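User: Look at the shape:
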Amino acid sequence: MDKADWIELTEGPLPVAEVLAWVVRPGCGAVDLFCGTVRDHSEDRRGVEMLEYEAYEPFVVPSMKEIAHEARRRWPEIGRLAFLHRIGVLTVGEIAVAVAVSTPHRAEALDAVRWSIDTLKTTVPIWKREIWKDGADWGLGATELSELGDVGLSGT
């Protein structure tokens, strides 16, 4: 974590309350926080009990830092920004990813968080394996990773 960006890949539970408190700034009247949780299904697969996240760790934090830099370029009014992602086995209901942004006004915070999580999901080398009662396999909704510059990016 530096003074304005908190970027982390961890095996432990995400400290969402701490992230929310940290991202608040005196000059920022808006905070948007997105948390992605493990659900009990995906596409045509019911009864998912756990997800196992794997990452190509040497590239994860640098990739998230690139996204943070680009988010700050697009929304220069961002006060603080946090990207945290878990790896390892998570059960239904656990938080796998958290993205938080503070800005002076809500429109920018909402736009920056949406763009950031969408970009993180398509450019950062993290994969999930779904585990259900009778088996396990890689997630059905996986997309191929893109370079940050190749992503069809909306926003300012």
Summary: The first helix runs from residue 16 to 23. The radius of gyration is 16 Å. The chain has three helices and ten strands.
